[in-house]
Amino acid sequence: MAVTSTAGLGRPRRWLAGLAWVLWALIMLGLAVGPWMDRLMIRAGRPDLVVLVPDAVVGPVLAVLSAATVGAVVASRRPRQPVGWLLLGFALSLTASGVITSYVTYGLLARPGALPAAHALARYYPATGAAALALLSLVLLLTPTGSLPSARWRWWAVITAATPVALVLVMPVAPGRFDPQLLLASSPFSDRALGGVLLVATRVALVLTALAVAVAAGSLVLRFRRAQGVERQQLRWVALAATLMLLAGPVVLASVALGIPVLAEWAPAVWLVVLPVAVGAAILRYRLYDLDRIISRTLAYGLLTLLLGGGYAVVVLGLGQLLGRQSPLVVAAATLAVAALFQPARRRVQAVVDRRFNRRRHDTARIVEGFGARLRDQVDLDTLTTELLEVVDQTMQPTQASLWLRPPAPSTAVHGPVHGRLGAVE
To answer: pTM of the predicted model, to two decimals?
Structure first.
């Protein structure tokens, strides 16, 4: 009989887990390059070239942190699941885009000639955006099982993965006008920075990868319609992130129309922060059946924050007109009012949210409350048993339920008749 040692089976997984966290550390190092390069630009007397503007960079940095951390956790725990590695690649692409921007800006504008190959490195800047979009589309296409929805999607996945690779190979050798300074300051679609074959290749690659994200999002709808059981619960998490993406579209359009660029930058960033978290929760099967509870709590505490914040502002403004805005009594009164209203307002808002958005929990609480009221007056054991099984079926919805009764103790039977006791519900 052949005996196979299993001592080394855990080593590949440990090695892959270590690789995942090495990539995470590399991404964090890339994020640190931006502030360091900005300090060098300020020392060079060019503070106008600083890349990390707080209003524009906080959202993308949070998106990178979310994708990198979730990707490292998923890849280290389930190394055979490709989505974790794809999330790490997505974060690396975004980080590489920021590093190239800082490197080229310093090497060509702040101190021309101070950094080697700055002009050549700028050619790869459009490829980072195409790679990020392609990896994001593959994340959506392979979530949550790690495999394609069907074999017919294989050709589309190949095209999506090959597009940024082809752009990387074409950019160094393709003829056409190339101005790295205008490329960093304008859109990659602009014909001012690029021309000829370079412009055509960049536009085709970015359009294909952007289309791939939309197609991959559509594949989730088809996958959800066919899914059952655990996979359907997993896809509900991704559906939550997709809903935020749909809400981000009108916000971006409204912010562009109103001339508020901050909203246009933050709305997609919020979706990019939530999407990796939702994908990670779906793959790791973390609290799959608590999604309704999480949504209801989020809505409840969001509404409660707005309500109490508005009440605090009203009290401060109202008393401020009478006592003066600098009076400590205004702040004290507003704080006490908010503290007194917190618990009653929380219960009322939670009840309204559950009634509208988490109907099952609302109905369950109502059924259990009614059963508790009848329990105080019910003495017939047979009727109580029937009602208890009905309550369990309506609230917990088990596949089967049984009730066993504990027989009365011998000492109890001497003093009087005892019908039985409730033991357990399975």
So the answer is: 0.68
